[in-house]
Design goal:
The chain is of the alpha+beta class and 460 residues long. It has a domain of 302 residues: outer membrane lipoprotein receptor (LolB), chain A, CATH 2.50.20.10. The protein is 15% helix and 33% strand. The longest helix has 13 residues. The protein starts with 7 loop residues before the first helix and ends with a helix. InterPro entries: DUF1329 (IPR010752).
Length: 460
């Protein structure tokens, strides 16, 4: 039997000690960034007890086991309160898998390479915008703050590049589940996004000169049900992190583009949905429309960051379980994340915001968001947002992103805790044959990210 060199108490004391001294030095045995730069692997930064769910739980759970109401107390401290309650009371289940230590499997390959290449080059200018400190221009690519020292750096990286590709298109299916457990609404649609700056794959790079003052173009449109077919929305983000995006929408009944109030980001785009624009990637609003970013905790966590792709299923679709009718939650595989960083923030430029703050969990290995809970104006838990990521790699069924396997989100669960409504989204392979998920296609802009594109989508 191998003796335990570092116990759970050792890691916990390390996290608490750093917090007491106001430090955010990721890693326990050595700096996480050094471990990644040396070998692209996080193993050297953490003791075995943070790299194995079996070691962490002292053998009570292991990879391949399922967390349910009968054993959730064993890992209660590894879950945000909403998932814990859903497992305990609504039949949610999570299947355990081994911890991923190879960071090249946790984000797009080129994004990671750019992060390592450009480490230490980013900062904030006088207006609070992320810039390349060498010339004061917009950021040049990858994660600008791979060694975060505070909450705003974590959120800045997340807001700058949601999907971590220069451009992405996601064919998706949405299921809106009523408190009764019935799927009350179902939508098929597409979500597109493209970055004119900080580009690491698409030419020209790092900037598209025609739009160097823009941060992002993003659109969403619906193909079904028939009554919503052609309904679409376009967000155009300024690079100024304090400026609200322009929001345009096309409603087929009126056959025209209209501009919508852009600060109404806490409302569903379609009936029945529990998902808001503000929720996107837990950073759906410009960085400085929120404030008082602060780190409130660190420690291990359970989340779906690999293994959540079903290449053998028609259109990659997933099974569900839980709730009164078995439709509330996705079948999900989760793993022990050695270190998550918990950040809170408060809305600053939303006088009618129904939320008082949000709490977001970031995976320290790659700073990807792995969970979010928002709180209402009375400080009570209001809504939650959790998802699963995966590398789309499975032998001859691997989805390629250039020279490497495609990395992206697999599914999302958005829960309105107070009403009991749940929205589930899944990324599928294709819709109607022509709308296919993928990354870095130069035609994404013309197809989905202009007002003219919205008009064409409305005519499909």
């Amino acid at each position: 039997m191998t003796p335990i060199r570092y116990t759970r108490d050792y890691s916990r004391r390390k996290f608490l000690s750093d917090a007491a001294r106001g430090l955010l030095a990721t890693g326990v045995l050595m700096p996480l960034s050094k471990a990644i730069a040396d070998k692209g692997d996080v193993s050297a930064a953490y003791p075995d007890e943070l790299l194995s769910i079996e070691a962490y739980t002292r053998g009570r759970l292991k990879a391949g086991d399922v967390i349910d109401a009968s054993n959730v107390e064993v890992v209660k401290d590894l879950l945000e309160p909403v998932r814990y309650q859903q497992i305990l009371k609504q039949g949610r289940r999570l299947k355990l898998r081994a911890t991923t230590t190879d960071v090249m499997r946790l984000s797009p390959w080129e994004y990671i390479e750019a992060t390592l290449k450009n480490a230490g080059k980013a900062g904030f200018d006088a207006k609070g915008n992320v810039v390349n400190m060498a010339d004061g221009k917009p950021w040049i690519g990858g994660n600008p703050f791979p060694n975060p020292t505070n909450g705003i750096e974590l959120f800045a990286a997340q807001t700058l590049s949601w999907g971590r590709h220069d451009a992405s298109f996601y064919a998706f299916k949405e299921y809106d589940v009523a408190p009764s457990g019935l799927v009350e609404f179902q939508y098929d649609g597409g979500w597109a996004e493209m970055s004119p700056v900080a580009r690491v794959v698409m030419e020209p790079r790092p900037y598209w000169p025609d739009h160097v003052n823009k941060l992002r173009f993003q659109s969403v449109f619906f193909l079904s049900p028939q009554s919503f077919r052609g309904t679409s929305f376009l967000n155009v983000w300024d690079y100024d992190h304090s400026t609200f995006p322009l929001l345009y929408g096309y409603v087929p009944e009126f056959r025209r583009i209209r501009q919508f109030p852009t600060d109404q980001r806490f409302e569903p785009l379609v009936p029945g949905s529990a998902l808001y624009l503000s929720d996107a990637w837990a950073a759906g609003d410009p960085l400085h429309t929120w404030g008082n970013y602060r780190i409130v905790g660190r420690g291990p966590f359970l989340a779906g960051v690999s293994g959540n792709w079903n290449p053998d299923k028609p259109n990659w679709q997933r099974g569900t379980h839980g709730g009164p009718k078995g439709h509330n939650f996705w079948d999900t595989e989760v793993e022990l994340i050695p270190e998550a960083i918990i950040v809170e923030a408060e809305p600053q430029k939303f006088p009618r915001a129904p939320v008082s703050r949000k709490r977001v969990w970031f995976d320290a290995r790659n700073q990807v968001v792995v969970g979010m809970v928002t709180y209402d104006r009375k400080g009570q838990p209001y809504r939650s947002f959790d998802g699963a990521y995966t590398l789309y790699e499975a032998g001859d069924k691997t989805v390629k992103d250039g020279a490497h396997p495609y990395w992206s989100w697999a599914h999302v669960t958005a829960s309105d805790i107070q009403t009991g409504r749940i929205t589930r989204l899944e990324q599928v392979q294709a819709l109607e044959a022509r709308y296919k998920s993928g990354a870095n296609d130069p035609e994404i802009y013309n197809k989905y990210l202009t007002q003219g594109a919205l008009m064409k989508l409305g005519a499909v």
